[in-house]
Design a protein that fits this description.
The complex is a heterodimer of chains A (about 80) and B (about 160). In chain A, about 70% of the residues lie in helices and about 0% in strands. Chain A has helices at about 5-25, 40-75. The N and C termini of chain A lie close together (about 5 Å). Classes of the chains: A mainly alpha (about 80), B alpha+beta (about 160).
């Protein structure tokens, strides 16, 4: 079990981590030189991976925001 | 222009982010009892496992394909868990916690906010997130360490022969 305050701190930290990860995934997505040493088909695969990581991190950030709202609004003190 | 080392460093940072998220959520899931919050975090955790596998996949087929054979030979497994690390040489050095990156029969690669000089002898208590087998306790010595993001190190530790 975990107290409300500690859970909120954890969820806020999770949100912060996801928000910091998004620009890291996106950092080179539009760079012409990034991955230029790789074969074209490998470039496509790596960019697909980075796009997916970015997209799902955005989704996770929204999920953390929703959880924070849920916990903040709840009367429950132990989770 | 980007060098191979630049790519490796960038994907090491991505691997660190994924492991960090996964370990934090795993630590929280074992304590939570609320089904709604637990289910939501479980779904995020499953995505993080998938993300981590994608990052490891990029290493395996694009960045370090020559090391795939080496990995197979040493039967290295990407096992995630916490590692309690205690110096066996410095009595006054407080134990600290790291995270397992991968494991072979010869040693462990771990991440932590502290590290030791090469040759430091340590005791490690390893608790798994993604394995059903029992937690283990092994001694070993630090072989190498590298700072992958500021204040966060990845280190290789060779187990003592039992």
């Amino acid at each position: 079990m975990i107290a409300k305050d500690e859970l909120l701190n954890f969820l806020k930290k999770g949100l912060n981590t996801e928000e910091k990860a998004i620009p890291l995934y996106a950092k080179y997505l539009n760079s012409t030189f990034f991955l230029s040493d790789f074969k074209p088909e490998d470039q496509v695969r790596i960019k697909e991976v980075l796009m997916l990581l970015k997209k799902e991190s955005e989704f996770h950030a929204r999920a953390f925001e929703n959880l924070i709202r849920t916990v903040e609004r709840s009367d429950k003190n132990v989770y | 222009m980007f060098t191979k080392q630049d790519y490796i460093h960038y994907f090491e940072q991505l691997g660190h982010v994924e492991r960090y998220m996964l370990c934090n959520i795993s630590n929280m899931l074992v304590r939570l009892t609320d089904p709604q919050i637990k289910n939501a975090l479980q779904k995020i955790s499953e995505d993080e496992i998938k993300h981590y596998a994608f990052v490891l996949g990029v290493f395996a087929w694009a960045l370090e394909p020559d090391r795939v054979q080496e990995r197979r030979m040493s039967a290295r497994e990407h096992s995630l868990g916490t590692v309690g690390i205690q110096s066996l040489e410095k009595e006054n050095h407080a134990p600290f916690q790291g995270y397992c990156v991968n494991l072979s029969k010869n040693g462990i690669c771990l991440e932590s906010v502290q590290t030791f000089r090469a040759g430091e002898h340590v005791l490690m208590k390893i608790k798994w997130y993604n394995r059903s087998d029992a937690d283990i306790e092994r001694s070993g010595k630090f072989i190498w360490a590298k700072e992958i993001v500021p204040g966060f190190f990845i280190s290789g530790v060779e187990f003592d022969i039992q």
